[in-house]
Amino acid sequence: MNVFARQGFDVWTMDCENYGRSSRTESNSDIKSGVEDLKAASAVVAQATGQSRFHFLGESSGALRAAAFAAEMPERVDRLVLEAFTYTGRNSPTLAKRGEQLEYFRTHNRRKRDREMIRSIFTRDKPGTSDPRVAEALADAELQFGETIPTGTYLDMTANLPVVDPAKVTAPVLLLRGEHDGIASLEDLLDFFGKLPNPDRQFVMLAGAAHALNLGLNRAQVWHAVESFLAMPKRADT
């Protein structure tokens, strides 16, 4: 947030239901409920700013929420950035491993996210692509809210993909993938990219990066790609 605020963007974020400082319910907080959260949040931002359209950026399950929102509420989305996204999950080693716990996700609304689990996000694809101190800082920030989070996004990613129809995502899209990201194969993402209807779209492969794009060693490259996309001059009329 600070990076883009310094670049002049008015940056907003939120905690989805059952995350961070948000309210706790019996919901498993799946992608669909995340879309409803974004509807409510965008209405608040619209009222506060007087704007009706916004840029959206999501990473991992946040990218699924942002893309699903863009498909359902295109009138709210100016430009859309999807980082560490997954489409069908085809040939994803991360999702294949996660699928071993599918029955647990079906029968429980919360799962463990302790310090070891947070550390694993930075090492499971390619150790050395992130500074270990970043994982510790993230854990310190997150664990003040407890060691469990909802299972809904994991259930969606292991049993319900695809949750986004690319043909309905009409906004300009930047799709970013880390070279070593195990949550989505290159082929899967190129399939999604090829089905997007808006010709104003970009696919960026970040060499040396893994799943945690915004917290990896090469995060400055992520920020550069995103800023360039969001600051794209308007197309001239012909």
What can you tell me about this protein's structure?
By secondary structure, the chain is of the alpha/beta class. The protein has one domain (2-230): 3-Layer(aba) Sandwich (Rossmann fold). 40% of the residues lie in helices and 13% in strands. The protein contains ten helices and six strands, in the order H-H-E-H-E-H-H-E-H-H-E-H-E-H-E-H. The chain has helices at 2-6, 31-49, 61-72, 93-98, 102-107, 115-121, 132-142, 152-159, 186-194, 219-230, and strands spanning 54-59, 77-83, 110-112, 148-150, 173-178, 201-206. The strands form two sheets. It has a four-stranded parallel sheet with strand order 1-2-5-6, sandwiched between helices. A two-stranded antiparallel ribbon has the order 3-4. Helix 2 packs across helix 3. The chain is globular and about 55 Å long.
CATH topology: Rossmann fold
Per DSSP E runs of 2 or more residues, the count of β-strands stands at: 6
> Strand order within the widest sheet?
1-2-5-6
Structural class per helix/strand content? alpha/beta
Strand fraction band? Answer: 5-15%
Q: Total helix count?
A: 10
- Biggest sheet character: 4 strands, parallel
CATH class membership: Alpha Beta
Mean pLDDT: 97
Tell me the domain tally.
1
Compressed to H and E, one letter per element, the order equals: HHEHEHHEHHEHEHEH
What separation lies between the terminal Cα atoms?
36 Å
